[in-house]
């Protein structure tokens, strides 16, 4: 019933502009009927000083969090219905606010093919009020390193650097041995 361009707009989160999916970017509808992806809501909740409610970034209305946690907020069934058939079954996600992590709890049995391509956890930032705590910088550094290593170009660059280093070391050792 909607023109195609409008459908495409529906399929993207208004905060991060990512495509909705059935894992960490599941479309979640707030009480004000505005829809955002689970990842963005988790990021907002982690930074919020009021962890029991979510404030809509569009209309500022508050939605109390469900007792069973952020991932149990209602899915936007309209948006979900526009997703491909393989994405109709939403993953069961656990939200650990203290660690700032979203984790896949259960993979829907209908999506075995997707299991390999989906990462099992997602960092959504550090909780407000825990700034400066031990392990904070370590976590950030580690995730940055992982991000760098996962970028193909960076990976190639680091690999060639290592290769050059090995060659230089070998030449140096040969040179020293000859003397
Ligand atoms: Zn989003
Ligand atoms: Zn709203």
From TrEMBL:
Gene3D superfamilies attached to this UniProt entry: Zinc/RING finger domain, C3HC4 (zinc finger)
Keyword Protein biosynthesis in annotation: no
A GO biological process held by the record: protein ubiquitination
Residue intervals of the RING-type domain: 13-60
Tagged with keyword Metal-binding: yes
MF terms (GO), sorted A to Z: ubiquitin protein ligase activity; zinc ion binding
InterPro entries in the record: RING_finger_E3_ubiq-ligases (IPR051435), Znf-RING_euk (IPR027370), Znf_RING (IPR001841), Znf_RING/FYVE/PHD (IPR013083), Znf_RING_CS (IPR017907)
Coiled coil: none
TM helices/strands, residue ranges: 156-176
Protein name (Swiss-Prot/TrEMBL): RING-type domain-containing protein
Source organism of the structure: Sinocyclocheilus anshuiensis
Pfam families registered for this protein in UniProt: zf-RING_UBOX
Alphabetically ordered keywords of this record: Membrane, Metal-binding, Transmembrane, Transmembrane helix, Zinc, Zinc-finger
SUPFAM superfamilies in UniProt: RING/U-box
